[in-house]
Amino acid sequence: MIDVAVITSGLNLSKSTKEKITRAPLIYDEVEAHIQIFGLCTTVCNQYSEEYLKLKNGPEPVVNDGLYKAREDFVTCHMNCVSSIEAQLKSLQ
What we know:
It is rod-shaped, with a radius of gyration of 21 Å. The chain is α+β, with helices and mostly antiparallel strands. The chain has one domain. A two-stranded antiparallel ribbon has the order 1-2. The protein has helices at 30-44, 46-57, 64-91, and strands spanning 3-8, 11-16. Helix 2 (46-57) runs antiparallel to helix 3. It contains three helices and two strands, in the order ββααα.
């Protein structure tokens, strides 16, 4: 008999290959998950928002191209982050 060991967060879970390994359906609050994903992606992409705010509120005149680029970079980062995490979440179902 061959044992398959899975290490998860310090837990050692072993299943015999003769036992069928099944995945339980993923149950979660979609609204809360979306809020958490949005917050995480905002944190991850914060470098763009900080640059955007620096350009917007800085003492020097705002160069429109730089302002638009910073805003565009943040939005692109945020959209990619959210869609990537949501796709991974859907793949677990």
